[in-house]
Write a structure and sequence with these properties.
With 534 residues, this protein is mostly helical. It has 21 helices and 4 strands. Helices cover 59% and strands 2% of the residues. The strands form 2 sheets. It has a two-stranded antiparallel ribbon with strand order 1-2. The chain has a two-stranded antiparallel sheet with strand order 3-4. The longest helix is centred in the first third of the chain and has 29 residues.
Length: 534
């Protein structure tokens, strides 16, 4: 697979394709969450951290920015470094800064629209990257959708600010390719600065992945690396980090004293996971729609419930990836995928993406997922790739997971059948959607075998399955309308506000709810204070 250099199409046609890539990503998510927005009276109320962190933090940070309070913030904990504390969540995000130019009362209403924008931009940037390696723009657009609605993305709707990172990550790889192959200066430095500013936690993993990517790509004929190019890449990376230091330095001051930073793996924990379900959950997340955060289903566990384990590609699952891996030996995409697979299975290598921290996270999976989406798009575009092997392996895993769900369980000396999954209905619904996706994929590949045009049809069907997969995750996690209304009435739009006079001689703090963290962050009119902040 070589980087494709075709005659440049008309500018209008090229812009139309980029716009379509964005609109498909934006519109697919909007179709899913619009019923929730209507039911919730214009708000998007999900559950867990989205409600207790994302909504309050967006509002609190807006108030701080609008008042020019960039130093010490008294409305978080007992007072915190504002830039250092909120850099992880939103302060470096272009999407957050868009909300600061809106009327203050629109901020919470704007959040679901911004979430759709993030998926749209993820689809667009992934399309721009994948387009370099495939002939058909339709295949590249399918790859962009697979990245934007991968299992990782669906899981992390729960963590709204993770989507800021995934939306722009493909720009890093595009910029590196442009610097090495086209000698385009400055773009890589700006991309590094942007991603470093958006989220320092994810940036540590991106550094590791970019090093691996550069090394693996050096063995490809279409990657014109040299010692001079290496130092150019290094120089621009340093310049990008220096630009981002306006956010990185306050963040370092805020996190270096945190005990979790100094936690590391030792002994057997470096080479094997103590949680016996972890490898199974990783495999499940690659072949099936992922579990909802905090609710592991088939392989129930008390560990890593929020670890962002997800990798499923809508409709195609791993079929295209496995077909590519079998028939493209020695290819750079296969090499980096194998390296990442090993890293995911070995704890110390997995932790390398987080500065060797001892806590388990899979929050770097979005990077190899972009490569998986590329491989699927290429497998669709290249008629020489035979998908039979990929379909066979996927169906074997589907059958294995179905069989595991039938295993008996025992509780209080009583044997129970059909209860191995925590949420059986949701598991079988997911299995049905994924099986239907593979069946449709087989139909499309048969059309290709008969030399019928199929890529436009494949793009439409992929969009439909992106919507279906997102519904399976979002509707399972979303608050019921009456609970959402209660949340809105109590936390966002209360009928009565609490007004307390605070002076230097009666300064105090108070937490006002056991049911939801950070209530006061949503509206300082409620109370000048806050609850939990990690």
């Amino acid at each position: 697979m070589k980087s494709v250099t075709l005659r440049r199409p008309a500018l209008r046609e090229e812009l139309r394709r980029y716009l379509l890539a964005f609109l498909l990503g934006f519109g697919s998510l909007l179709v899913v969450i619009l019923p929730i927005i209507i039911a919730d009276g214009g708000y998007y109320i999900y559950y867990g951290d989205y409600n207790s962190q994302q909504i309050p933090f967006y509002n609190l940070a807006n108030d701080a920015v609008r008042s020019g309070s960039f130093g010490w913030n008294w409305y978080t904990d007992l007072g915190v470094n504002f830039i250092g504390s909120y850099a992880f969540y939103l302060l470096g995000s272009p999407f957050f800064w868009l909300t600061t130019i809106l009327p203050r009362s629109w901020v919470t209403f704007a959040m679901p629209v911004l979430l759709c924008m993030k998926h749209g931009i993820a689809s667009l940037t992934a399309y721009a990257y994948i387009r370099r390696f495939v002939r058909s723009p339709h295949a590249a657009m399918i790859g962009g959708l697979l990245y934007a609605f991968s299992g990782f993305q669906l899981f992390n709707i729960f963590f709204n600010h993770f989507q800021d990172v995934t939306a722009f990550f493909p720009l890093l790889l595009i910029a590196m390719e442009e610097l090495v192959n086209q000698n385009r200066r400055g773009v890589f430095a700006l991309s590094v600065a942007l991603l470093a500013a958006i989220n320092y936690f994810f940036f540590t993993g991106q550094v590791v992945f970019l090093v691996l990517y550069f090394i693996v790509r050096c063995f490809s004929k279409d990657f014109h690396a040299s010692l001079k190019k290496f130092f150019l890449v290094l120089l621009e990376a340093v310049i990008g980090v220096m630009i981002a230091c306006v956010i990185l330095l306050p963040s370092a001051l805020a996190i270096l004293a945190n005990n979790r930073v100094s936690e590391h793996l030792f002994g057997m924990d470096m080479v094997a996971y103590s949680d016996r379900t972890r490898i199974w959950r990783i495999l499940l997340s690659l072949f099936l729609i992922p579990d909802v955060p905090a609710r592991p289903n088939l392989f129930s566990s008390d560990f890593g419930k929020w670890a962002s384990i997800g990798g499923y590609l809508p409709m195609f699952s791993m079929a295209g990836v496995l077909a590519f891996l079998k028939q493209r030996d020695g290819h750079w995409a296969k090499r980096i995928t194998v390296i990442c697979a090993v890293c995911a299975c070995v704890p110390i290598l997995n932790s390398a993406f987080y500065a060797l921290n001892g806590s388990y996270y899979a929050r770097w999976f979005y990077m190899p997922i972009l490569i998986l989406a590329l491989m699927t798009a290429y497998s669709l575009d290249n008629r020489q790739i035979d998908w039979k092997y990929g379909f066979r392996i996927c169906f074997i895993f589907f059958a294995a997971f179905a069989a595991i769900s039938l295993l008996p369980t025992k509780e209080d000396d009583e044997i129970h059948w059909f209860s191995f999954a925590e949420y059986p209905f949701h598991f079988y619904l997911v299995l049905l959607i994924c099986t239907a996706g593979l069946a449709v994929s087989i139909y499309l590949l048969r059309c290709r075998k008969k030399h019928k045009p199929f890529l436009k049809q494949a793009m439409a069907l992929t969009t439909g399955f992106c919507v279906a997969c997102t519904m399976a995750v979002v509707y399972f996690g979303a608050f019921e309308p009456f609970r959402a209304r209660t949340y809105v009435d109590q936390a966002i739009d209360p009928e009565q506000e609490i007004s307390l006079s605070v002076s230097e001689d009666n300064f105090f703090r108070i937490d006002i709810s056991e049911n939801c963290d950070n209530y006061p962050g949503i509206d300082h009119g409620l109370l000048q204070g806050t609850g939990y902040h990690p």
